[in-house]
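Bit of a strange request maybe. I'm writing a small parser for structure token strings and I need a real example to test against, not something I typed by hand. Could someone generate the tokens for this chain?
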Amino acid sequence: MQFGIFTVGDVTTDPTTGHTPSENERIKATLAIAQKVEEVGLDVFATGEHHNPPFVPSSPTTLLGYIAAKTEKIILSTATTLITTNDPVKIAEDFAMLQHIADGRVDITLGRGNTGPVYPWFGKDIRQGIPLALENYALLRRLWREESVDWSGEFRTPLQGFQSTPRPLDDVPPFVWHGSIRSPEIAEQAAFYGDGFFANHIFWPASHTQKMVGFYRQRFEHYGHGTAEQAIVGLGGQVFMRKNSQDAVNDFRPYFNNAPVYGHGPSLEEFTEQTPLTVGSPQQVIDRTLAFRDYVGDYQRQLFLMDHAGLPLKTVLEQLDLLGEEVVPVLRKEFAKNRPASVPDAPTHESLKAAAAAAASVSTAAERAEINTSATATKEA
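Reply from user aminoacidic:
Good idea to test on real output. This should exercise your parser:
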């Protein structure tokens, strides 16, 4: 099972000091956080994609390319790559390039995003959000798997004999997660292709996440990719920790109360009761996170949001120390207990490469057997 961090890259005023970081400060802080993720022994760093204030990550592959040069082990991913408003050709080429730079330590989470105005900014219609997601991904898959693509569709100009460059590293495309908060159509899309499904799992109650993941698992099995328990599931989540739980509540409350995404609404206590937000001691985070398995089953990836709402870099790095030293080692051990052998590990470039080689070997063996059978029949005749 993989553990890591995802960031939305918000530029938010620290309510305890009144300091608003510059865009440069926020970007440099994100780079420091990513390198800390590797230092404390986590597996994944993922960035969102936004094209509007107060967010800064408008160019995920630029950000991840720098991080690739500064790290050696962590998987570089996205919390959302906008499949609706980005050209699939550009996605195919950018992430294949990133694969080569990072020696395969790359995967991608595709989604529609949560900012309506982004659609007209890129010449798209938000009312076509789902059809755009479906058509653009169908093209993206072909661009990664076929050297020459002839294609026509509704939302972009046709392609004739087009070759995306560079080709995916080792001819193995990045593993794809389809991310969604509320759209069963996206869970269906993930299941249809046998891809991963990433449930954001931040703002909605456990019952909603349970339904979305359950639907994806059911459809994954329906399309013949394996049993429901073999479907590839990732969850988001958000935590704030201190050694003492009351200190965590006291320290985080002003950030929660003023955060643009959930401030000025339910109280901190109401929000933590109704959603997976966990504010408390490391043990409370462990207990709450382990309980996710009770309603989604054994899953493959857990990413936490920890650098939002104006929290200063120093505090975020302290959070990562606690996560890496006290929380994740226990989660790894406990999630491994009673995990059925049939549940797959989280996909990596190496595991996908090995699977492709095994499939090619089986295909070659079958072709040889067919040739031998044909030769024998001819000889007997």
